[in-house]
Each structure stands twice: as C-alpha cells, then as structure tokens.
Amino acid sequence: MSRPLPSVFDQALAAAVRAPSPHNTQPWRFVVEHEVIEVWLDRERVLAVADPHGREARLACGAAAFNLQICLRANGIAAVVRMLPDPAEPDLVAVIRLDGNEKATAAERRLAEAVFRRHTNRRPLLDKEVPPVVRAALKSAALNEGGQIEYLDASGRYTPVASLVRQAEAIQADDHAFRAEAAFWTHREPDSPDGVPKAAAGPPPHGPGIVSLRASHENRDLPAREYEQEPLLGAVLTRDRGPHAEVRAGMAMQRVLLTATAEGLATSFLSQPFETPHTRESLDRLFAGLGQPHTLLRIGYGYPTRLTGRRPVHEVLTHRTTAG
C-alpha cells in the first residue's frame, strides 16, 4: 500500500507517546521504515529499582503500540500488530504493519478520540458506583486484546490485595534506593516533558485508607483530603506469563483505560505490589488459577486533572532508510 498521509502518520505517533508509563518515564523508541513501525523498549528509561526486569516498561510499550494501532484504524488504515517478533532482538517489543485500507468502526473512532483525553487521576474519586453495564464494557475491552480484568470486590481478593499494596508502600518508604528513584521522576516542573509534575499529583490523604496511594505522588502543597473509602479495583491478567504476555497485557490495559475514558471514568494505577519481590509473589499466589496479574487499576468517577507532559515525537523516532 502507499504510505498514509504524513498528517495521519504523525497523529498515530503522537497518539503512541500519550500511553501511560511508570512515573511517566516513557520507556519507548519508534523506528519507521516504509509501511512498518517498530516499537522498541528504551532500556535507559527502565526503572532500575522498581522495575529491574522491565515488566512495567513492556506494559507501557504495549500501551503505546495499541495507541498507534487504534489511531491508524480510526483513520481507515488497517494495522496489524506482531508482538516480540524477533527472538534475537528482545527489546523489539512490537511491529505494526500497515495492511491496506479498512473502514473505521464507530468504536475505533471513539477509542482513538479518548487517547488525547486519557490521563492518570491521582486525586480523590467520588463515592459513586461504576454501573454493571460499564464494568461489562471494560471486561469486553480486555478480552478484545487477549487479556482479562478481574474486579476484586466480586472475588474475595479485595482485602488481601489492599493489604499487599500497603505492605509494598511501607517497604518502598523504608528503602533509600526506591525513594531516590521516585524523587528523581516526581515533583517535576509543570512544563516537564517527562516525569510527574507536582501539579498532577494528588493531595495527601486526610487519614489512612483501605488502599494506599503512592506517597511519592502526593502534593503536600495541597490541603489533606478524604479519599474514597473503597475504590473499584481491577486486576489486568493474561493466561500466560513472560515478556510476550506483558506486551499483550499492555495492549489490553490500554484498551480498558481508553474505554474507561470514553465512559467518563477516571483511572489510576496501584503499582507498588508489583515492584517488591515479596508482595509480587503473594499477588501471583492470590491469582493462581485465574492468570498472571500485570497491573492493578483504581477505577471510578472523578474530576479532570491536568495531563502530564510528553517528549516530542522527533526525540523518540528514527527513520530507517534502505539502500536501493
């Protein structure tokens, strides 16, 4: 096929960099060659303490690949994703190949529109239930990408998972290396192209809650606020495990997040228990038989907050030319 108009291509790459990542590290690079876009893991932006094996970074790259694909499809371009296509290049996490023209569906256009509105909401949510029809829509979104979302309130896992979140937060609070790494990436200036600016952080909680949010993402310039008592928590799972599953989980996670945004929901992450070995092993045991847990989402209704910055596309993009 002929290469799409530059504006469509540029929009798809601009969508890719709007994906979420731990501490907004943006651990991706993109290489374009003819009708192929490669998504690479950027090892220099993997959190050495919190994510030494790059699990969360691969989730982020999977989310970026999904944004690329959905934006191209919304513009009438069929786009096929292959995950970890080359065993000799483990940091090549996905390849998106353009595959002709295809009429966009209303659902694809709706998700693509949500890409530039989706953001992590670290502030208190309203004590308002997410209705069953919306929960079902999020479940379908995960299934559509080969993943699943398990709501903890319906499974008996809510209390033990919330306990693991608190345990991990306490472990990280006592670990100098964790604290130093988080401090480097947070409390950035408002116009920072990466990391989490103070203005995007949440107020400190008025009292201890069932679920512990990241202390490193608190803005102590704000007055303390009451947080929702029992937020809806959803675990994103895959049936298999390993790097391939992590990329797929990132794609499923992003489809869930964009569906939530389109439905007027706010979302944030509870990543702490995935970042300390003891709590991660406990999570794996809790979900044994269901699948491999990759991330925990806090889901509900809230007020919009500011978007975090992103590096310009040209800083993360390489054009590869083939000699004729």
Between the first and last Cα atoms, what is the distance in angstroms? 19 Å
Helices and strands, in N-to-C order? HEEHEEHHEHHEEEHEHEHE
Q: Estimate the global geometry from the Cα principal axes.
A: globular
Look at the helices and sheets and give the structural class. alpha+beta
State the major sheet: 5 strands, mixed
Please mark out the parts with pLDDT under 50 across 5 or more consecutive residues, or reply none: none
Q: Care to count the β-strands?
A: 11
Classify the beta-strand content into a percent band.
Answer: 15-25%
Measured as a percent range, the helix fraction is: 25-40%
Q: What is the strand arrangement across the widest sheet?
A: 3-4-2-1-11
Count of DSSP-assigned helices: 9
What is the CA-atom radius of gyration, in angstroms? 19 Å
Give the mean pLDDT. 93
Question: Can you describe this structure?
Answer:
The structure is a single chain. The protein is α+β, with helices and mostly antiparallel strands. It is 35% helix and 19% strand. It is built from nine helices and eleven strands. The strands form three sheets. The protein has a five-stranded mixed beta sheet. Strands 5-8-10-9 form a four-stranded antiparallel beta sheet. The longest helix is centred in the first third of the chain and has 20 residues, at 55-74. The chain is globular and about 60 Å long. The chain starts with 5 loop residues before the first helix and ends in a 5-residue tail after the last strand. The model has no long low-confidence stretch (mean pLDDT 93).
